[in-house]
Each structure stands twice: as C-alpha cells, then as structure tokens.
Write a structure and sequence with these properties.
Length: 131
C-alpha cells in the first residue's frame, strides 16, 4: 500500500507552487515595509498610513506602493548598497594604510636603532601598539 496514492503528482506540484507563491508574497510585503520604514522623506504619519494600508488591504496596498514607489525603492536600495560598499572600501583602505602593531613596532625599533629614543621609550611604544 502506497501512502501517497491518494495525492497525485499534479496536486503535489500545485501545493508546492502555492507554498512558493506564499513565501514570495511574504517576501514582497516585508521588502515594502522595510523600504517604507527606512525612508527619510516620509513623515511618521505617512509611514503609519502606508503601513495601515498595506496591512488592512494587503494586495491593493502592496501593489499601489510598488507601482508608485518601485523606481524609488530600486534607487534607495542601490544607494544603500553603494554606501555600504564605500564604507567597506574606506575601512579596508584605512586598515591597509596603517601597518598595524607590527609596523608600529618596526618603526619604533628603527627609532631605537638610530638613537632617537631610548630603551624605556621603545618598550612604552611597543606596549601601546600591542594594546
């Protein structure tokens, strides 16, 4: 006896399709709400009205928001990604520009070898760079 004999392949396929569409719908609603609450050009009352519209009339609210604000959503997302990439690049440049603790200790050793600082100052610089 087969357990799935009463559930034909097309019913399984239809169930999977409905489930995937449900997940996509939740994803779209969350994306719309995230975009809405990240916006700086909409007041708190405007955000509350949009959120109420999306929650009370979800299909109409989401579709109206996407039609009216879709290009703005894409532009804001691109700007956010570009700002994140710029911040990451700046951080990498700042870290790679400084040699870190090893570079600072090497510079202090050069100063010690040249006689510009004494042994106590070298140890102090070494402790500071390792801290």
């Amino acid at each position: 006896m087969f357990i799935a004999a009463d559930y034909p392949f097309l019913d399984v396929f239809w169930t999977m399709l409905i489930f995937v569409m449900w997940v996509i719908w939740i994803w779209i609603v969350v994306a719309v709400l995230m975009d809405l609450f990240r916006r700086q050009d909409v007041s708190g009352w405007g955000k509350a009205a949009w959120a109420f519209f999306v929650i009370v009339l979800p299909y109409l609210g989401v579709f109206v928001y996407l039609i009216g604000q879709g290009k703005g959503m894409a532009d804001r997302k691109a700007a956010e990604l570009q700002a994140g990439r710029a911040a990451f690049d700046d951080r990498v440049r700042s870290v790679s520009a400084s040699n870190g603790a090893a570079g600072e200790i090497a510079e202090a050793k050069k100063l010690l070898d040249s006689g510009a600082i004494n042994e106590a100052e070298f140890e102090k610089l070494k402790r500071l760079s390792l801290a």
